[in-house]
Amino acid sequence: MLNTNDTREDKLMTLKSFPIMNIATINKSNPLSSVVLFYVDNDLNFYFVTRENSYKAKSLLEDNKISFSVWNQNQMIVQADGVASVFVDKENKIINEIVESLKLLGEFWPPLLSFSESDYILFKIKPNWLRALNIKDQKIATEKPSFTFIDL
Amino acid sequence: MKRILLVDDDKFLIRVYKSKLEARGYITEMVEDSENALNTAKLFKPDFIILDLIMPKMDGYKVLELLKKDVETEDIPVFVLSILGNEDDYIRAAKLGAIGCAQKTKISFEDMIKTIEKYLN
To answer: What's the average model confidence in pLDDT over A80-85?
Structure first.
């Protein structure tokens, strides 16, 4: 469980413990929000897979700006924004990591698998900034949210 | 422990199947390139095969035909799982020796497990 003295590695471990995040993209000047499975590497690059013909894929191919948040119950909220790029995963290492992270979700069957009308596309998100709020340590009231920025 | 061979070119789906079947205690092997299905079946010696129909290079019908023509693999139960929902496709697969067929969009993972257990027990 996180506390106020948690290091970057502690925060990374918390991020690795819950593989679902919410992303926001720009779809023809309109905001678009989606929920995706993700994998985060040790350099705090985030990866997610979607279908080539999904709205989020098309919007990111038009405009690569992205923001996202991860909410890990009773532990941590993470917010970030950055840029997304198509990632070529020749040896399927990232796909394997995403599938591995699914084990954390028990019997969950990803909706992504139900939509098979096009091929997959894998995106890598390189954050511009990333900050975390420790929920566990929050008092009843604070003067301002105690987000801490995580070194990239 | 029972062994299951997965043959599907969907690189994400096949890995999710593998992960979830292993969590249920099965030993699994996956083949993404259908041309390797027969040789892998001979080496891996599965108790059950889950086979996709629509694949590049060699489709599931051809793989099924080869499996059923080879003395080393002819008795392995093969369950066809496909995006196709046409009855003619299922009849064709059954004639080639499939023990059952299901449409990917209509079967849940739990139902898939029940089907596997029915044939393995």
So the answer is: 97
Q: Which residues of B are less than 8 Å from A96 in CB distance?
A: 15
Nearest CB to A109; choose among B10, B105, B109: B109
Task: State the CATH number of the domain containing residue B35.
Answer: 3.40.50.2300
Sheet containing B100-103: give its strands across.
B27-31, B3-7, B48-52, B78-82, B100-103
pTM, full prediction:
0.86
CATH 2.30.110.10 fits A8-149, yes or no: yes
Cβ-contact A129, A81 below 8 angstroms:
yes
Convert the pLDDT of each residue in A124-134 to its tens digit: 999 999 999 88
Q: For residue A113, give the nearest of B13, B18, B23 by CB distance.
A: B13
B15 and A92 within 8 Å at the Cβ level: the answer is: yes
